[in-house]
Amino acid sequence: MTSADRSASRLETPAAMRVLAHPTRLRLLGLLRENGPQTAAQLGEVVDEAPGTISYHLSKLASIDLIEPAEPRSADQRERWWQAAAAETTWEPAEHLDDPAQRAASSALEKSIAQIYAARYSEYVDAMPTLPAEWVAAGTTGDRTLRLTLDELAAMRSELESLMHRWQEASARHDDADETTAPVALVYQAYRRP
């Protein structure tokens, strides 16, 4: 099954969640999704790790079917090309609350992702002075504390996911050569405060 055949990979086991919870692996998977097929050497230049280290992390991602071999894009037969197996990875934390091992693995993955979100936003804040003012003005961030019922929170989740998918379709209509577009991070969260 190629990445074109699947839009999402679903994590079911604590072992798979622990594999993905590693920050370097999260970054590699993100780079393959954003930039398409690449080799360990190419990824190593971006991540600043040795190709051997990158190859190890790629093999771990392949072991849980998050990435797969890609068609070579050069004549060098020694190069191994990789691509993301799906456009996104999902799991349902609520399904893992009753089992301590599953809960710990899900929690570790959630925390690793939160750290990446925080680091990316910090990079954006640092880069703001170098970005075109109209791009900064078009972006947004904010938070609200809402008082909702369980059903209302579930409905808001559904609406947010629908909104994200609509804009994901718009994104898919643009190619890298379109100079009027730029990568845009979309992060949303809605959860009951403890």
From TrEMBL:
What InterPro entries does the database record attribute to this sequence?
A: HTH_ArsR_DNA-bd_dom, HTH_MetalResp_TranReg, WH-like_DNA-bd_sf, WH_DNA-bd_sf
- Look up the domain of life of the source: Bacteria
Gene3D superfamilies, alphabetized: Winged helix-like DNA-binding domain superfamily/Winged helix DNA-binding domain
Q: Mind telling me which SMART domains this protein's record contains?
A: HTH_ARSR
The answer to whether keyword Transcription applies is yes
Q: Which Pfam families match?
A: HTH_20
User: GO molecular function terms here?
Assistant: DNA binding
Where is the HTH arsR-type domain positioned along the sequence? 15-87
Give the UniProt keywords, A-Z. Answer: DNA-binding, Transcription, Transcription regulation
PANTHER family per the UniProt record, alphabetical: REGULATORY PROTEIN ARSR, TRANSCRIPTIONAL REGULATOR, ARSR FAMILY
The name on file for this protein is: DNA-binding transcriptional ArsR family regulator
Q: Which organism is it from?
A: Microbacterium paludicola
